């Protein structure tokens, strides 16, 4: 998460144990994340907490097409989730090399995903006890992500749908494209870099003379991202239409490749 917004995420974490499901967690008031792979290919979801504690969901795991996995997130947890694609595990199972979203070759991530990567970001039980969440393209895009709040306590008028349903890879300008290198992905666009990663200038990275909301605005590249994904962050200060809140007790369905539903 870029420095301009990291202060808005409370870096608190209670201990958490990975599980395929947690019966009764919702009834007990615990937030439950359900991850659904709606892509036509296997992905390796990854999680990272906002501090040095163990991430929810154990940090990472394999998820086949059409499969779901659920795990709890404690009040006060702040962090991010993303999909790794094009992954090949070592014969020993001790490491994992991924074409996108790789976290230093680890199966269970303790580092952020290498950009370009689409991020789902959460703070549970933040200001006024509310949850804050968003989907961000600030670090680029690899697959679509949709975040829907569910459960009996959800107010549909306030708990909005965050996400990137559009296929940014299909619209990605040539100068931002990342091409696959192996198998049936060779030569195809597997990810779309952010302008900051591609060019490294203050204008695109919201740094230096462009380091504030009044001096860093949308660019032709962030506008392209925003047009494809109106409910996602397109650049660092894209807050008004991109950050969502929900009351405590909501559950969250995170769908990868939601456009393929």
UniProtKB/TrEMBL annotation:
Superkingdom of the organism of origin: Eukaryota
Listed GO biological process terms: defense response
InterPro entries, per database record: Osmotin/thaumatin-like_sf (IPR037176), Thaumatin (IPR001938)
The UniProt record lists the keyword Cell inner membrane: no
Annotated signal sequence range: 1-21
Disulfide bonds: 39-257, 87-98, 103-109, 159-246, 164-229, 172-192, 196-205, 206-216
Protein name, UniProt field: Thaumatin-like protein
Organism of derivation: Triticum turgidum subsp. durum
Higher taxonomy: Eukaryota, Viridiplantae, Streptophyta, Embryophyta, Tracheophyta
């Amino acid at each position: 998460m870029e420095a301009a917004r990291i202060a808005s995420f409370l870096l608190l974490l209670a201990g958490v144990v990975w599980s395929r499901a947690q019966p009764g967690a919702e009834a007990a008031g615990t937030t439950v994340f359900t991850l659904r792979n709606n892509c036509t290919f296997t992905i390796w979801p990854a999680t990272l907490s906002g501090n040095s504690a163990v991430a929810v969901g154990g940090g990472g795991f394999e998820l086949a097409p059409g499969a779901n996995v659920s795990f709890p997130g404690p009040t006060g947890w702040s962090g991010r989730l993303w999909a790794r694609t094009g992954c090949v595990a070592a014969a020993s199972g001790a490491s994992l090399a991924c074409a996108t979203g790789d976290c230093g070759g680890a199966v269970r991530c303790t580092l952020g995903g290498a950009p370009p990567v689409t991020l789902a970001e959460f703070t549970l039980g933040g200001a006024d006890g509310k949850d804050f969440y968003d989907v961000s393209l600030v670090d680029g895009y690899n697959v679509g992500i949709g975040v829907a709040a569910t459960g009996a306590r959800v107010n549909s008028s306030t708990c909005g749908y965050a996400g990137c349903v559009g296929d940014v890879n299909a619209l990605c300008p040539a100068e931002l494209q990342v091409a696959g290198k192996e198998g049936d992905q060779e030569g195809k666009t597997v990810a779309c870099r952010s302008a900051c990663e591609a060019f490294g200038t203050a204008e695109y990275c919201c740094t230096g003379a462009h380091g504030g909301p009044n001096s860093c605005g949308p660019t032709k590249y962030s506008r392209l991202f925003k047009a494809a994904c109106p409910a996602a962050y397109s650049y660092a200060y894209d807050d008004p239409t991109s950050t969502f809140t929900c009351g405590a007790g909501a559950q969250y369905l995170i769908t990868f490749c939601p456009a393929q539903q």
